[in-house]
Amino acid sequence: MIEFKNVELRYNDFVAMSDLNLTVNEGEFFTFLGPSGCGKTTTLRALVGFLKPYAGNIVVAGNDITDLPVEKREIGMVFQSYALFPTMNVYENIAFGLKVKKLSKKEIHEKVMAVASKIDLSEEQLYKNVASLSGGQQQRVALARAIVLEPKILCLDEPLSNLDAKLRVGLREELKRLQRTLNITTLYVTHDQEEALTLSDRIAVFNNGRIEQVGTPYEIYNKSASEFVCDFIGDINRITPRLIEKINEQTTGRRFKTDREAFVRIERIFGEVKQNYASIKGKVLDKEYNGLYTKYTYEVEGQKLKNIEKNDGLISHELNDMVDLFINPDDIMQF
Amino acid sequence: MNDSKVFKYLRKIGVFGIVIRVFLAWFAIAFLIYPNVNLLVSLFYKNGEFSTEVFGKVLNSARAMRSLYNSFILAFTLIVTVNIVGILLVLFTEYFDLKGSKILRAGYMTTLIYGGIVLATGYKFVYGSNGLLTRGLVTIFPDLNQNWFVGYPAVVFIMTFALTSNHIIFLTNAVRGLDNQLIEAAQNMGESSWNIFRKIVMPILKPSIFAITILTFLTGLGALSAPLVVGGVDFQTINPMIVTFANIPYSREIAAFLAIILGIATMILLAIMSRIEKGGTYISIAKTKTRFVKQKIHSKPLNLLMHVAAYGTWLIYVVPIVLVVLFSFSDSRAILSGNLSLDSLTIANYQTLFVSRRAFRPYMVSVTYSIAASVLVALLAVFVSKIIHKNTGKFSKALEYSMLIPWLLPSTLIALGLLMAYDRPRALLGNNALLGTTYMLLMGYIIIKIPFSIRIIKSAFFSLEDSLEESAQCMGASAFYTLRRVIMPIILPTVLAVIVLNFNSLLSDYDLTVFLFHPLYEPLGIVIKAASEETASLNAVAMSFVYSVILMIISATALFLTQSDWANKRRKA
Fold it and tell me: Mean of the pLDDT values across residues A207-224?
């Protein structure tokens, strides 16, 4: 559906993205994930047409759109700030693109009402000033305005970042439902790993102007392709070569290199006995109670390791307790 | 840009964009660059070679040299007097907790609606040889010279009270922006009120005061109305001299040279001010700023002294306006005698304004010119700002800089530039001349209002979120459609405010008008100035009061519509 072929994006002499090769499939919910300044929004803007690639091509449904003006690409976009027109009410905002297309008043009305019902906007809300809406409602209007034009592709640039945590989770679910209903190819930009993992069919992790890994959320999380991806997604423990040697001594089969660090996710270190796992002893240095679970910090072989234990009443440690910890070698990642 | 890039650029901006750019380029060359270059060339380049003849002419002219000297003396004096009065006004209304501070502020703010030639003639009416106060004083002190209100002290007096508007606007905002916790912290550490003011408050206000000082100096240097009305023969400054010399063909060069000196001084001072703006502005580091609370004066005698000083100053501001309003309702007899009584009150003067075409004509002329110039300059500023907003190319940079030229030049220099450039047919205007046409003043008005209009409208463009235009583009809208449907409705309140403010300040303009007006179409400023002369008829004086009152009403309305809390709330809504 969407292909970036050897794309290079620049701001004057600064190379924001180099040699980008990426394919997004039709109907896919695809997320560009990465820290600020990694090139994810730049790539999205190039697809929409706000930035012309310095080199390479962008192909949509077999057509090269690299030189096509923004207004002719038929790509819907929801901006981080929503970019709702403050001098127009909700109805006028949603109808804007339809008016540009010179649709009849009747058609415009029908389409606006249809999209409003899809995203739970009441008729009363349609005639309100956009400034009087809450953040969540504004986000809905921005989404309605983008999808009412029935674009082939929908781009969302950090659309939930201006909302509070609870609303963000609610709208995340709604967004996913809507995308499935409309079956629209969606590109989503975010720096929030949780958002990316919960929403996406596939994720591209961006770092420093290039893609580190493309994969399903499961692959990205559990089979990280690089130290950066491993570190960026979720909480990890760094395992020093000294501790790696100890683990190598206890396990058969998989051997880890002892000239570099390895990584294991904090929820993959267990405080209960596990057969065939490497066993290490740790002293409890700190505990953070977090309602659902408790996060422990241990001292193991001169380094710090963390794990989490569900607060189900089965495991509870006190400071300075000596604890046996178990690690599955298959959970260890080394690059 | 190579050929294909130029072609792509032209295709991108479209026919409308090309036409607009060609028009703006022509406008900038014809009205902003050429007149000034022509002025310099005609002064310093004669018979095909560089000439310094004009230096000799100026040095040999005692009047010219004297006016230069007077201008600088006036400017330096005003720095002191205006700052003293201006700072005191702000302390009275914003810093100290004085009774009736709102009434005081309203009185001090009158200079915002009552300035320039209107104020100078009003003050002359109170303090001049036939003035009410003078007559009162003469009855008490029969030996008093009736012409006491003339020359340097009179000019300084008028201008001191006329130029406090900047303090009222900018310094007031600076005081209101003070973080009260700064004061409380100093109090907590045992500092006295006086030392808090000296060591904490003044350093914060210093950048604002410095910027106002430079504006005051510039205004003093370019003074025209006050020296013309009350300067007398002994105290004429550069601008009145330029007016005099400009009307004598032989001396026009001296006028131009004096205007250039004024221009150079303006540029130097604006450069200094720009440096101050960049480097010296106080930025609050407060994470949670608290609202400034007015300081109580605990010493009773000092509190009384402050109140007396505040209300005494208030009277100086308010009395001329009250008298102008009252005498606008008086018959000729009362104006001549200066004695007001219920019998002498009449609305005849106002009736004359609306019944007599002759009386109404100056209003018609000024209103027509002001509306035309304000609307045209706002349109021009919208297009220039739109080009500057999204383009960083050479054309947009050149356009922006050329549009700022009038900001660097005093209006006298702009007027002389236009006069000398277009006193004969020029190819740039399709072999037409402007001198002797009604367009001359219109062009002058447009030119002097360009920098202000562009600065304000440009900031409105730059305050727009980029994503607004981008989202319109995403939905298929063209650049012009986006400008018309999305951008213009958002910036319209700003554009309208610029139109109203420009209209207001042009309505009674005198400084530029005196050079460029068409003799058959005398604007208000010229008529009001004529009414202040000793030879003016009583009817003319009466009408000038009516003109002044209506001008004040228009100005107050304009300010209310654009600057009041009510207007701000509406804009935000």
Answer: 93
Nearest Cβ partner of B470 from A83, A85, A88?
A: A83
Interface of A with B in 85-124 (CB under 8 A): 85-88, 96-97, 100-101
Chain B contact for A132 (CB, 8 A cutoff): no
Q: Is residue B396 part of a domain?
A: yes
Question: Residue range A191-195: average pLDDT?
Answer: 92
> Can you give the residue ranges of every domain in chain A?
2-232, 236-331
pTM of the model: 0.76
Residues ≥6 apart with Cβ < 8 Å to B375: B499
Rounded distance between C-alpha atoms, residue A304 and residue A243, angstroms: 11
Alpha helices (H) in A183-277, listed in sequence order: 193-199, 217-222, 227-232, 241-250
Measured in angstroms, the CA of B563 and the nearest CA of chain A are apart by 21
Distance CA A298, CA A177 (A): 42
For B202-252, the pLDDT digits (tens) are 888 888 888 888 889 888 988 888 898 888 888 889 888 888 888 787 777
Nearest CB to A71; choose among B467, B477, B486: B477
8 Å CB contact of B465 and A81: yes
Residues B21 and B124 in one domain: no
A12 close to B (CB below 8 A): no
Question: Which residues, 6+ apart, have CB-to-CB distance to B269 below 8 Å?
Answer: B214, B217, B218
Q: Determine the Cα–Cα distance for residues B347 and B414; give it in Å rounded to an integer.
A: 40
- CA torsion through residues B190, B282, B495, B451, sign: positive
Testing the interface with A: which of B470, B475, B571 to mutate, by most A Cβ within 10 A? B475
Domain with B14 in it: 9-45+353-572
Distance from CA of B491 to the nearest CA of A (A): 10
Closest-CA residue of chain A to B475? A97
Using a 10 angstrom Cβ sphere, with 0-12 exposed, 13-18 middle and 19 or more buried, the burial of residue B270 is middle
pLDDT tier at A25 (50, 70, 90 boundaries)? Answer: very high
CA distance A48 to chain B (A): 8
Two structure tokens written together for B481: 């459609």
Q: A96, B467: Cβ pair inside 8 Å?
A: no
Report the number of distinct structural domains present in chain B. Answer: 2
What distance in Å separates the CA atoms of residue B328 and residue B346, rounded to the nearest whole number? 9
Mean pLDDT within A59-63: 93
Q: Would the CB atoms of B474 and A80 count as touching at under 8 Å?
A: no
Query: Which of A273, A262, A303 has its CA nearest to residue A285?
Result: A303
The CATH number covering residue B398 comes to: 1.10.3720.10
Domain contains B340: no
Q: Which fold would CATH assign to domain A236-331?
A: OB fold (Dihydrolipoamide Acetyltransferase, E2P) (2.40.50)
Element (H, E) at B18: helix B3-27
Which pairing describes strands A278-289 and A303-310: parallel, antiparallel, or unpaired?
Answer: unpaired
List helix spans (H) across B99-179.
101-108, 116-127, 132-140, 152-162, 165-166, 172-176
From B268, B295, B328, give the residue that closes a domain. Answer: B328
- What is the model's pLDDT at position B156? 94
The answer to whether position B348 is within a domain reads no
Task: Kindly report the CATH number that applies to the domain delimited by A2-232.
Answer: 3.40.50.300
Say whether B471 and A145 touch across the interface (CB within 8 A). yes
Those residues of chain B that have pLDDT short of 70 are 1-4, 276-289, 338, 563-573
- Count interface pairs A-B at CB distance under 8 A: 59
Indicate whether B422 belongs to any domain: yes
A71 neighbourhood in chain B, CB within 8 Å: 473-478
Which of chain B's residues have a Cβ under 8 Å away from the Cβ of A100?
475-477, 481
ipTM: 0.72
Residue B282, pLDDT score: 55
What Å distances lie between residue B235 and B76, B294, B331, CA to CA? 15, 42, 33
Identify whether residues B22 and B126 lie together within a single domain. Answer: no
